[in-house]
Structures are given as structure tokens and as C-alpha cells.
Amino acid sequence: MVVMGIVSCVMLNEEETRLAGIFILSGTVVHAWSLLRMVAKKWREIGVMIAIYREIIEIIERETSSLPSSAR
Question: Which residues contact 29 (CB under 8 A, 6 or more apart)?
Fold first, then answer.
């Protein structure tokens, strides 16, 4: 995407390719924004999953520490 953005900026500087540069740059910006949103969403999901796993581990540790030593 970075390369496409750079190429479109170069195209914007030339009169013959200015319109194509505008379309390519706008498409690159839209797709970059979409990609960033997807990455943020996945990051939040992973954070929630890690928190859930930590809670499960804490519950297991509490349960196993409360057992008598003969039951372990």
C-alpha cells in the first residue's frame, strides 16, 4: 500500500496521469483505513481471549490449591 501511495503521488505531479493518480490514491487510502480497522478489531478479540484464558488459569490454580494434599 505504501508503494501504491508513493506511485500515485508521483502520478499526481504529472498532468497526463493526474486523474489516475487521484483514483489510485483514494483507493489506497480507503483500503489502508479498512485494513487498520480489521487489525484493531482482531487485536481487541485477541486481548479478550487472553483475558479469558488468564481467568481460567486463575480459577484452576485456586481450585487446585484448595484441594487437600492427599487428593493431588
Answer: 5
